[in-house]
Amino acid sequence: MSRTPTAAPVGALGQVARLLTLVPFLHHRDGVRLEEAATLLGTTPNQVVQDLRVLFMCGLPGGLPDDLIDVDLDAIVSEEGSPVSEGVIRIENADYLARPLRLTATEASAVIVALRMLRDTRAAGASPELVDRVLAKLEAAAAIGGAPHVEVAPSPRDAEQVVVAQLRALVEEALAGSHQIRLSYFVPSRDEESERVVDPHGIVNHGIFSYLDAWCHRAGADRLFRLDRITKAEILPSRTTAPVRPPRDLDDGLFGDDTGPDSTLVTLRLAPQARWATDYYPMRDVRPADDGSAEVDLVVVDRRWLVRLLLRLAPYAEVLQPGEFTEALTARAQETLRLYQ
Amino acid sequence: MPAPKSERLLNLLIMLLVQRRPIAKERIRELLYPDSRPDAFEKMFERDKDELRSLGVPVEVAQIDPLFDDEVGYRIPPEAFALPEVELTPEEAQVVGIASRVWQHATMAQATTDAVRKLSAAGIDVDLDALEIARPLLTAEEPAFERCWIAVCERQAIEFDYQRPEAEPMRRHVQPWGVVRYAGRWYLVGYDADRGAERVFRLSRFLGEVRLVGHPGAYDVPPDTDVRQIARRMAPPTPTATAVLLVRAGAGHGFRRTASRITTGVEGPDDLSGWDRVEVLRATQGLADEVLSHGPDVVLLEPTAIRDQVVERLMQVAG
Fold first, then answer.
1. Do B11 and A59 touch (CB under 8 A)?
2. What average pLDDT does the segment A13-40 reach?
3. B99 and B70 within one domain
4. Domains in chain B, number
5. Distance of CA A324 to the CA centre of its chain
């Protein structure tokens, strides 16, 4: 992603933003310790001391001693100059900063959408009535001109997508520390779940799916794992042992290098009703025809996978070659049909 | 030695906030930028104002004297600056704490956290320990999401390349009205300047970068716009049904993983293995495909209309 205009401000601006939150926080509470303030602001006690040293130099125009904000630095800085986490922060002469800044449009909409999501999914045990009360109060407080129109209708896919996003973050973390990952993986072609330890290379996107490219210690080879089929993942303390390399570039076809002795090149004709498959499954070549159908080539390693795919697309996928798959499909369909009779 | 920038920004903010009347630029210069040359002051002051505004501080330009309009000054109205009073019960404050965990998206999570910090600073005791039990519920994987969200918040026009299925990508120019999440996807609703009409765009079909065009606040969203309703009209809901299946023992994990009920050891259509009865809520679209892919390991009992489709499709390939 490129520029992130709403990211937390850094440098001088970040310091001002923190102080505009810290001063009212102190105003509303007694005996706030340096450590608490750091937790609130998501920063370190040392940073809070530096922020307060700036505040100490600010105040009403005029520059008379009474005009300046007073900060009791002795209580939060030791004689050696290091921050005292347990020290209580005291400031005076800053009443005009007693209220925090209004919520920005982005902040207000982010928190309101989050609350609606809590309400509509009944997550975290909060009753819809309770969340509605909070929403009404915050919407009143955040009343900003041209409040953004954001609506979220929860769906079962939200949970899956959150899981994938969390997996991405987990893989990034493992990569950064060169750690191995233990994962449970669901393999539809074998209709089974298996556990394995992998050395991650990275995440790659192809079509509408994302894959973890990794060295699989169980298979003793590089493998691609579709993220939405990883049912469990944890970072292990152990370090990766496979040679480090960037994730594969899948633009030239997903399993392009898998054309080994065990694999077969299969050509199918997909009727328009089955064309969606070209977005979902790795195709080596797609040759569209004028009538909306297409001829596609794909490399098949696991024959059961292909038969499952053909059944899924039945009767809109026709095997052009090799002929053995037509026979396998027919036999499987007859077997299944008998169960319905 | 000139004061550090954060000190200068904060002093500027305090000065404009506490004065009842707008303050003339020259006076600001005397008090806060005493050592700078006129052109350097102009530049620095412009930048400082912009930076304060980027934090959400309302720096306004106003006439100093209502009788003479030749001189303008600057002020920060306290009522526009400060968060209004918010009173939350402890129970309500806990809900706010949990809300800050809902987003699994870095920028939105940050924005929510910043909002919760401001509420804490207003005196509300948000229970941060409650966060441990909360799990994220919402994400936005589409790269275009962040720019679209900002454009909606800022009412700023955008342009982007959009690819509909089976079509060439096209450059689109849109005034965003809202973003909507529906059926697990993010959509942008807005006024399509090329078509001269309201349109809905699926964020996953944006190609490359979204560019902000023109100034914030450049247009108004029609007051009676109901973005959820627009999105629902243009992206009809996916009908769902409870599927009842017979599944061979040890097979059909895709159905079992999300089943609402599983009855083991029921009577099945053959004696080659044991059979289980599985109930699962599924979108009706694609259900026949999924059942078919399992071949003789899964038999669909209900809905009967889809069962008929499965049988019909099997007959066509069974020869």
1. yes
2. 93
3. yes
4. 3
5. 43
